[in-house]
Amino acid sequence: MPQAKKLALFAVIVFVLYVIITDPAKAADYVQTGFEGVSDGASAVGDFMTWVANGAK
Q1: Mean pLDDT value of segment 8-16
Q2: Which domain of life is it from (predicted)?
Q3: Is the pTM here over 0.70, yes or no?
Q4: Cα–Cα distance between 12 and 4 in angstroms, integer?
Q5: Can you give the pLDDT at residue 8?
Q6: Distances (CA, A) of 4 to 9, 10, 17, 18, 21
């Protein structure tokens, strides 16, 4: 099983490098989209925690 994990990780790294080398602008868009998703998720968690702290009203 550890060999499969290593192979999968290698495949992901090769794919990422391929995308970066062949189309840097699109790779930058992917990174920006990922960061926006993480930011939106963190904002949603913050809103939820605020709601809970205010008595869930």
Answers
A1: 93
A2: Bacteria
A3: no
A4: 12
A5: 94
A6: 9, 10, 20, 21, 26
How many residues are there in the chain? 57
Nearest to 32, CA basis, from 24, 43, 42, 21: 24
Q: How many CA atoms lie within 13 A of 27 on its CB side?
A: 10
Residue 23, phi-psi category: left (phi > 0), alpha (psi -120 to 50), beta (remainder): beta
Instruction: Identify the pLDDT of residue 6.
Output: 93
What is the DSSP annotation of 5-53? Answer: HHHHHHHHHHHHHHHHHH-HHHHHHHHHHHHHHHHHHHHHHHHHHHHHH
C-beta of residue 12 within 8 angstroms of C-beta of residue 5 = no
